Amino acid sequence: MVTTEPVIRVQGLRKTYVHERPFSREKFVVRALDGIDLVISAGSSFALVGESGSGKSTLALCMARLEQPGEGRIWFEGQDLFRLSGPELMRVRRHIQLIFQGTAAALNPRFSAEEIIIEPLRIQSVGTRTEQRDRAVHLMEKVGLPPVWLSRRPHQFSGGQRQRLAIARALALEPRLLILDEAFTGLDLSIQAQMVALLRDLQSRENLTYVFISHDLSLMAHVADEIAIFDRGRIVEQGQPSRLFSNPCQPETRALLEAIPGRRSVLGLGQS
Amino acid sequence: MEPLLEVRDLHVDYLSDGMPPAQVLRGVSFTVSKNEAVGILGESGCGKSTLALAILRLLPSRSRLKGAIFYKSRELTNLPEREMEKLRGAEVSLIFQDAGSSLHPTLRVGTQIADVAAAHHKDWSARQRREGAEAILKEVGFDQVERIYASYPHQLSGGQQQRIAVAQALISGPSLLIADEPTSSLDTTVQAEILALLKRLRREHSLALVFVSHNPAVLAEMADRILVVYAGQIVEEGSAQQVLNSPLHPFALALLRCVPKDVRHNGPDRLLSAIPGSPPDPAETPAGCPFAPRCAERMDVCGSRMPSETRPEPDRKVRCFKYGG
Question: Is B81 in a helix, a strand, or coil?
Fold first, then answer.
């Protein structure tokens, strides 16, 4: 199906969290999202970059319909995400998958790798038992893990291998949008580079759209076509990586660029 | 000049029932001079954290240590535990990656800093301890010292918690600070603040630093000299400038290629090149060079025996057959 419809269109999204202190009437309001508009086209890689607490993860959760915004709308391939229910919603959920930072916490320690990969297929009732197993073997190969490890449990994998396993699970339902929330944080640089190569390879073969969430501008410049800089619930600047690096317009962008380690050192990273 | 710290042929094995011992460090030797910052660079599982713990004799009980560690010419490996306790914090301090989990959750952070002072200065009054803690809180960059003093760890951000850990590490005036991935779980901007703080404190307190990291870009900020560790061995050693600008060992070269460079210099494809495979299992002793299975420049000899250390240039060491080995 050829479509010009963007994978994600966000319009006027707002979300506030109200915190109440225990034993006190004092309330404080956090504006996690304060009027977000953006469009992510099919097959592209989009990065949301900002400091902790800037609201980028809240936006990701809204895109996956795991969080309800206060105002605004999100369309996934033209369908209004917050008007869907029942079987329609179930169908859309297949196509939007998430990968988180702490794989040790995101993978059930009592499940084998096979059960982990097959669980989404079971929930969505996809295929027979044999087909599911074949699929698990195929997915392990796809993310570069030996299929004989399907009987292993998460603790028998290294950090980088667990992240591959999480990707295999996310791909099980053949999603069209993959949201990676700090999926590289805490991984060694060598593993990070392997993940980047794997994701790029998968994208070229599967027509996947990626939304990356990260505080690491230098890494995002390597994986994203377009970067949105987040600050206090707003997108303060958006553009292609090379433009943001050569001509940052906002102080928040400059602060993130300044913070890149090795910038003014012998490595000469980020120097013009 | 006498080095501040000298580690000589250090071997550490981790023991477990019914399994061969995991050889985590296989003969590591290096020195750290007064005021010098030495970076230890390597992947997860290469033994770099074990090295940090071994210096302070904080290894788990089911481990075996061989070799010698000299601090100000005192041999630490056979020092009585009571002497070791006096040395930790007062002479050599340690900070970890996750400061939040090394702080007591139900004690005020100020008290936790003052307690460190109390352990080393038994003669200090409660007021002296408190004043000492407040002074160090100011030094690590807090403005509202009293509010921070009375806070609990969960009320502080990750960066603030790491500042508290630094305050604890420095209150007893050590000469050597060992920092094990102290910024790896922090945001880039907070990381930059902590690195700047450590640089300033290093200058002001004439501290020597052993800085453990998997990230060459972070060591570019912090280190005068870099040791590259692979599978429990130092495979390359040189000045930060030498190692980062013109690495000799194929592993060091490959790791540097994993650092995201400035996009404007990289052309349209912006490729990071990954190192294939993963580090060897420390329970298995490789016959040849442990990096050989992943090495782009492997030769026939690499699989047959371990390369020995050579000095291709003055003040540089490398363990690779390309340079004689």
Answer: helix
Q: Searching chain B, which residue's CA lies closest to the CA of residue A200? A: B271
Burial of A21 (0-12, 13-18, 19+ CB in 10 A): exposed
Burial class (CB in 10 A: 0-12, 13-18, 19+), B310: middle
Asked whether residue B80 carries a pLDDT value surpassing 70, the answer given is yes
Whether the per-residue pLDDT at B81 is higher than 90: the answer is yes
pLDDT at B146: 95
What length does chain A have? 272
For the cut 60, the answer to whether the pLDDT of residue A270 exceeds it is no
Q: Is A260 an 8 Å CB contact of chain B?
A: yes
Chain A residues touching B216 at Cβ < 8 A: 189, 262, 267
A225 closest CA partner among A71, A47, A102? A47
* A198 → chain B, closest CA residue: B274
Ordered by where they begin, the domains of chain B are 5-85+210-323 (3.40.50.300)
DSSP assignment of B235-260 equals EEEEEHHHHHHS--SHHHHHHHTTSP
What is residue B173's predicted lDDT score, i.e. its pLDDT? 93
Could you give all domains of chain A from N- to C-terminal order, each with its CATH number? 6-95+175-271 (3.40.50.300), 103-174 (no CATH)
ipTM: 0.83
Whether B184 sits inside 8 A of A186 (CB atoms) is yes
Looking up tokens 């080995």 gives B325
